[in-house]
């Protein structure tokens, strides 16, 4: 039982990292209707900014806050200066632009900080607590609590605030939103800025658990996209639950299914996607799109 609980908690912690990035992808999609593949690179850049500030002597909490603020500004700037030229054109072109942006940001991080592994300061106390024989780190518990808080805040934003409803209106139909008097350009900047800030949280959560490198979010981005597909692009709660499900099932499959082991556990989320999408193409918690023709 202790081993099982350990695997579940560790899976929830790992899934929480995927969830942070997945929530940022959902936020951009809810604001613009696009999938932002550059989200992983922006998260890495944010982590490096926080790391550089700590190296200059800034307290960790101030470095993290400064990094999130810088990410908010960077996300808004990218939307205003770059993505706005493509958002009203072919969506496929805009997606390709975000992939190019991912490569560019990763290259910039490597150019400035190199590919050498860097040690990011721990965010949470280094102690552990024992529950039913399982040793749970404060880092794992803290990561889960942070993601739950963000999930609740995003759900409240999209469902219970005028800003969230306006962002969704712009994503659904930009022209109708503009005719209704909504400041479309400003809302798009806000959506990208918020998503970049959320990506910064993801990068800062990952950095202490792994070595800080330009490519540290590559695997997390793949799992985050899997969580988005499973949970549904319209549901922040859904993508978090899907990310947790992926993290837990990966751990359990690696430990208890002999032919999968730790070498093939990466296949687990994709098998899960295949099974779920046969019955629910919109994802576990997504809504069906109804198009009038």
TrEMBL record:
It comes from the Bacteria. The chain crosses the membrane at residues 6-27, 34-54, 60-82, 94-114, 190-208, 220-247, 253-278. It is a multi-pass membrane protein. InterPro entries: ABC_transp_permease, BCAA_transport_permease. It is found in: Cell membrane. Its main location: membrane. Keywords: Amino-acid transport, Cell membrane, Membrane, Transmembrane, Transmembrane helix, Transport. Belongs to the binding-protein-dependent transport system permease family. LivHM subfamily. This is Branched-chain amino acid ABC transporter permease.
